[in-house]
User: Which sequence fits this backbone?
């Protein structure tokens, strides 16, 4: 009994001390807050200061000023505040949110913007705009450092217009502006913004690309980390072994996939680029060419995402474009599957923009889009270098699919994905067997020999696990997706493996 009383006393005293420590800690935090004052970043610009206001590409073409030379800090401050004004304008026209207008525009210029926002709200109009590039010319910088005049040339903007949530149209412009800014309260505000000229850029069609040799390849994931090539299980030794297997099969090309989130969601991680570079080195050592799919399992095509997706693609393309193992770029895997849940016009607009962006950065390598079917592959076929499509139907339907597609485009065709799952068992009692898979590939290679079709099969390995975001949670679907390989999970060659050696 005495022991129990002693235990209770210890518990009560311990709880009392803990409560008092927490109270004292809370009081100290309040005192620190009261003594430190508000966050200076929030005093002036509200929520705007917390956000990345622009990812536009900015170049200064002319900084010569006949009067007072412009100091580097002043130039940087002008650029930052000017881009913030564009951000505030774009945000206001998108959401009707007017926070930040008084901080980035003078009273008169701000009134003009507020009137435009009110006009759009009254008519249910929403304008989603992104400014992609600015070319700034310094025209005048006052001796007292309080006024600056700029000409902003080659301002590339893209706008999508909606009314009552219904998509109406999208426009792209390249414009020039005369800009007058005043320094008020430590912040540069736009006093005058006048559009001088504007043009709609011509979207150039692409000539057909001819490959030096016939593409004979395979879509590649490591067996132990499917859909996660560049993750924690990344291994150069695994790549060397797998690429030797692929080379020994008589194949010359692999297609790999870049995860947008995995690589940093627009801020590409250097360690991921290093892993990609090492993969390219291993491929080159085995005489394999590489097609890189830049976006897979990605579905945000809104203008608000363009800056990040442009940077994602630009950083990867720029890092790899000089590598001798690179065959070409695939913008997006099966984007037509998003047509039902997003507007097909929005999807195609994003694809066209991204295709042009890649072609500008790397004009030396061909660009394609990985459509899920031959029927869908006619989309944007004028603007890619070759046309890619997938075909998972019976092999007897492939010749007619090819005939239909060739009637609509003169571009080279690449069968970018095809294959047959050999999953048969409890979850797929009526599925195909390994012999069925062998017959499928045998029939394909007979057609391929006749048609000289570029191809990449799906895939090298069977997988022990398939992520839910690939095939969903239903076991019969995951089981089917796991068994498209020509090497099983025990590392044994399946019957279809021989078809690759024979042809």
Assistant:
């Amino acid at each position: 009994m005495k022991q129990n009383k002693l235990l209770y006393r210890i518990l009560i005293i311990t709880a009392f001390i803990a409560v008092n420590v927490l109270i004292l800690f809370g009081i100290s935090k309040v005192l620190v807050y009261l003594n430190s004052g508000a966050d200076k970043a929030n005093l002036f610009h509200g929520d705007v200061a917390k956000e990345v206001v622009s990812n536009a590409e900015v170049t200064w073409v002319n900084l010569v000023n006949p009067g007072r030379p412009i100091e580097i800090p002043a130039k940087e401050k002008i650029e930052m505040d000017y881009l913030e004004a564009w951000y505030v304008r774009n945000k206001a026209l998108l959401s009707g949110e007017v926070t930040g207008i008084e901080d980035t525009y003078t009273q008169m210029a701000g009134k003009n913007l507020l009137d435009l926002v009110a006009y759009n709200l009254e008519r249910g109009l929403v304008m989603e705009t992104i400014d992609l590039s600015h070319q700034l010319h310094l025209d005048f910088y006052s001796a007292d450092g309080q006024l600056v005049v700029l000409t902003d040339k080659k301002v590339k903007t893209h706008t999508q217009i909606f009314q009552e949530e219904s998509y109406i149209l999208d426009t792209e412009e390249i414009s020039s502006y005369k800009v007058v800014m005043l320094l008020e309260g430590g912040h540069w505000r736009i006093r005058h913004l006048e559009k001088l000229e504007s043009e709609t850029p011509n979207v150039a069609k692409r000539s057909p690309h001819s490959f030096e040799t016939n593409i004979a390849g395979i879509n590649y994931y490591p067996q132990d980390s499917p859909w996660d090539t560049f993750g924690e299980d990344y291994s150069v030794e695994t790549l060397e072994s797998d690429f030797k297997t692929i080379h020994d099969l008589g194949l010359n090309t692999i297609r790999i996939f870049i995860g947008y989130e995995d690589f940093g969601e627009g801020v590409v991680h250097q360690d991921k680029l290093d892993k990609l570079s090492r993969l390219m080195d291993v491929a080159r050592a085995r005489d394999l060419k590489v097609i890189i799919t830049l976006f897979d399992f990605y579905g945000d095509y809104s203008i608000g995402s363009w800056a990040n997706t442009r940077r994602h693609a630009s950083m990867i393309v720029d890092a790899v474009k000089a590598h001798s193992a690179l065959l070409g770029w695939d913008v997006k895997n099966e984007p037509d599957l998003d047509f039902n849940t997003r507007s097909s016009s929005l999807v195609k607009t994003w694809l066209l923009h991204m295709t042009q962006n890649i072609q500008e950065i790397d004009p030396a390598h061909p660009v394609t889009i990985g459509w899920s079917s031959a029927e869908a592959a006619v989309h944007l076929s004028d603007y890619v270098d070759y046309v890619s499509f997938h075909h998972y139907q019976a092999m007897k339907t492939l010749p007619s699919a090819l005939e239909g597609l060739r009637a609509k485009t003169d571009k080279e065709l690449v069968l970018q994905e095809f294959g047959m799952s050999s999953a048969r068992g409890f979850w797929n009692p009526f599925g195909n067997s390994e012999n069925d898979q062998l017959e499928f590939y045998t029939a394909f290679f007979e057609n391929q020999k006749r048609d000289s079709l570029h191809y990449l099969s799906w895939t090298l390995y069977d997988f022990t696990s398939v992520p839910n975001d690939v095939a969903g949670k239903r076991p019969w679907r995951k089981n089917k997706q796991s068994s498209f390989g020509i090497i099983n999970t025990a590392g044994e060659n399946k019957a279809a493996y021989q078809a690759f050696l024979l042809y």
Notes: Confidence is low (pLDDT under 50) at residues 27-50.
